[in-house]
From TrEMBL:
The keyword Lipid metabolism does not apply. Produces ATP from ADP in the presence of a proton gradient across the membrane. Residues 1-19 form the signal peptide. Belongs to the ATPase alpha/beta chains family. Keywords: ATP synthesis, ATP-binding, CF(1), Coiled coil, Hydrogen ion transport, Ion transport, Membrane, Nucleotide-binding, Signal, Translocase, Transport. GO terms for cellular component: mitochondrial inner membrane; proton-transporting ATP synthase complex. Its EC number is 7.1.2.2. NCBIfam families: atpD. Transmembrane segments: none annotated. Its main location: membrane. It is an enzyme of class 7 (translocase). This is ATP synthase subunit beta. It is a peripheral membrane protein.
């Protein structure tokens, strides 16, 4: 009883203090009690309705100013704003709450009615008093700026909160998906009744999307009616395919040494400047051409500069195609790399004119970009990977396509989850990570798979190793989910070999799971011409030979690596014939693993090559068995299959003979 009386007395005292502070603030300038200028957030569905209700709301505020009744922002204004905001479709949708506490990215909201469930999204709304202030600020800014704001009214920012905890006393704790600077206590918050819903479908291709599904590329809103929640269950055991099939990428070193599993997870380890972006774009290009597949690139904790560079490079390489029209007559515009641009049609004009935005199409684009930049709060970085995965799931399930999902960087996903866990006052686990680290990673990874009689999602995830410590809980928790490891080595790139994938450090689970009983690498020496000719006709032999060839090449490259110190001291001439043969064949294999890329054709001048798996296996067999020992090393550099290597060798021999004959001729 005493506890109840103490709570009642404290509530009464708090009410008097709040009333006194509000009256003192209202009597003087309102800017005296704020550090940041107040930000106004509107929901995309309620922007027009809220603006239409502004005159009646402002009139109610003016009437309340001359009376002793409380302002409409606390009673009638809340109901008016709630009615203008519309209703949702989920449980408790349309409930209006008020912000009671703001601590960084954590916002506490109190509801009078039913509480929104965990993971529901809330949207910060405008109340009547805030609408009046917004109108006054617009009038002071002048007529020109007011017209520009009216033209961009539909792109007003909206702050989305995600429910994370129920604290009791009708209070929920939420995580903000954007900055909370300028937010004030007492501001209205509406329950949407659903998790965060993002647009999906073909109209997302070629666009840049943020964590809540809004387009941020300046080309207007995404015109689609299909929306998926970012929190979705993983496919059931009955839906998942149990067969492991190989996803041929057309890149020789990947298909031979570390093949991709269809519906698997690939870890990409590489530093800056080793060709990671070019490799990603080539994979997107090859999947689009070979399988008519699509790609989704998710930047988790991405630098804004790197994301912008990737976007521009994709436009230049044709992975993203932007069709800009000044009017419906296409013949009046000039064509340049599938981009129709009129001289008067610049990007600044596009972003201001909604009619021009409607005429822009992204037909032919093969990828969608989802960015959560590193300057955004942890809530956005912890959910942006789920947004990209949600877009990929639509193409897998509804259109039955093979999707490539790129996540850069998956470590930032776990890091953001650790920050959110700290904000929610959870007890940290080892090295300060969240206690739910394995669960958070598993929720994301288990949704990446292939489905029976439908498409697949193959994920390529860039992984950052903190302090090069592989025992760190974050990367070690990821290793259990990975099927393939790809390591980009800077020393190989210094040799001019691209892609600079290290065959010794890279591996794939598909090779070990596809072997037969005959797995002795010494049996590779018994391959004769008949086996090489029949390698394309016997599927069982392809798997066995693929494994044996891969292991033999690794042994060959390892022996060559161990001879490097002897070569640097004594030289090649001092080695025996067997070691010389190892060096000769290992160098040819290294050169053969280089490959021209289609996306780099504008820089190298060499047409890109897509090499089938059977040609890669047969060509590698010929090299390691000595059938091509008479060809020069330079003939293997930047070529496709072995036929192109022979043509290049013949051409080099002709050029050498012609140059020697011209030098020997008398002057």
């Amino acid at each position: 009883m005493r506890t109840l009386l103490n709570r009642a007395a404290a509530a009464a005292l708090w009410g008097r203090l709040a009333a006194a502070s509000s009256s003192s603030c209202c009597s003087s300038s309102r800017s005296c009690c704020r550090v940041y200028p107040r930000r106004y957030f509107t929901s995309s569905t309620a922007a027009a309705a809220t603006t239409a209700a502004a005159p009646s709301s402002s009139a109610a505020v003016a009437a309340a100013a001359g009376s002793k009744t409380p302002p409409p922002s606390t009673s009638a204004g809340a109901a008016a704003a709630a009615a203008a905001a519309g209703t949702g479709s989920g449980s408790g949708s349309g409930s209006i709450g008020r912000i009671t506490q703001i601590i960084g990215a954590v916002v506490d909201v109190e509801f009078d009615g039913p509480l929104p469930p965990i993971l529901n999204s809330l949207e910060v709304q405008l109340d009547a008093q805030q609408l009046q202030e917004l109108q006054q600020e617009q009038q002071q800014q002048g007529q020109q700026q007011q017209q520009q704001q009216q033209g961009q009214q539909q792109q007003q920012p909206r702050l989305v909160l995600e429910v994370a905890q129920h604290l009791g006393d009708n209070v929920v704790r939420t995580i903000a998906m954007d900055s909370t600077d300028g937010l004030v206590r007492g501001q209205l918050v509406k329950d949407t009744g659903n998790p965060i819903m993002v647009p999906v479908g073909p109209n997302t291709l070629g666009r840049i999307i943020n964590v809540i599904g809004d387009a941020v590329d300046g080309y207007g809103e995404i015109n689609t009616k299909i929306k998926y929640p970012i929190h979705r269950p993983s496919p059931s055991f009955q839906e998942q395919s149990t067969e492991q099939s190989m996803l041929v990428t057309g890149i020789k070193v990947i298909d031979l040494m570390c093949p991709f599993i269809r519906g698997g997870k690939i870890g990409l380890f590489g530093g800056a400047g080793v060709g990671k972006t070019v490799l990603i774009m080539e994979l997107i290009n090859n999947i689009a051409k070979k399988y008519d597949g699509l790609s989704v690139f998710t930047g988790v904790g991405e630098r804004t500069r790197e994301g912008n560079d990737l976007y521009k490079e994709m436009i230049q390489s044709g992975v993203i195609k932007i069709n800009k029209y000044l009017d419906s007559n296409k013949d009046n515009n000039t064509e340049n790399n599938n981009i129709y641009i009129n001289k008067k049609l610049d990007n600044k004009l596009i972003k201001k004119n909604k009619e021009i935005q409607e005429n822009i199409t992204f037909t032919g684009s093969k990828t969608a970009l989802v960015y959560g930049q590193m300057n955004e709060p942890p809530g956005a970085r912890a959910r942006v990977a789920l947004t990209g995965l949600c877009i990929a799931e639509y193409f897998r399930e509804e259109e039955g396509k093979d999707i490539l999902l790129f996540i850069d960087n998956i470590y930032r996903y776990t890091q953001a989850g650790s920050e959110v866990s700290t904000l929610l006052n959870r007890i940290p686990s080892a090295v300060g990570y969240q206690p739910t680290l394995s669960i958070d990673i598993g929720i994301l990874q288990e949704r990446i798979t292939n489905i029976n009689n439908k498409g697949s999602i193959t994920s390529i995830q860039a992984i950052y190793i903190p302090a090069d410590d592989l025992t760190d809980p974050a990367p070690s928790s990821l290793f259990y989910h990975l099927d393939t490891f790809i390591v980009l080595n800077r020393s190989i790139s210094q040799l001019g070999i691209y892609p600079c994938i290290d065959p010794l450090d890279s591996s794939s689970r598909l090779l070990s799971s596809s072997i037969n009983n005959n797995n002795n690498i010494n049996n590779i020496n018994n391959i004769n011409n008949n086996n090489i000719n029949n390698i394309n006709n016997n599927n069982n032999n392809i798997i066995d030979n693929h494994y044996n060839i891969c292991r033999y090449i690794q042994k060959l490259l390892q022996d060559y690596k161990s001879l490097q110190d002897i070569i640097s001291i004594l030289g090649i001439d001092e080695l025996n014939e067997q070691d010389k043969q190892i060096i000769k064949r290992a160098r040819k294999i290294q050169k053969f693993f280089s490959q021209p890329f289609s996306v780099a054709e504008v820089f190298t001048g060499i047409k890109g090559k897509f090499v089938d798996l059977d040609k890669t296996i047969s060509s590698s067999s010929l090299i390691i068995n000595g059938y091509l020992d008479d060809l020069p090393e330079a003939a293997f550099y930047m070529c496709g299959d072995i036929d192109e290597v022979k043509e290049k060798a013949i051409k080099m021999a002709k050029d050498l003979s012609s140059s020697s004959s011209s030098s020997s001729s008398p002057i």
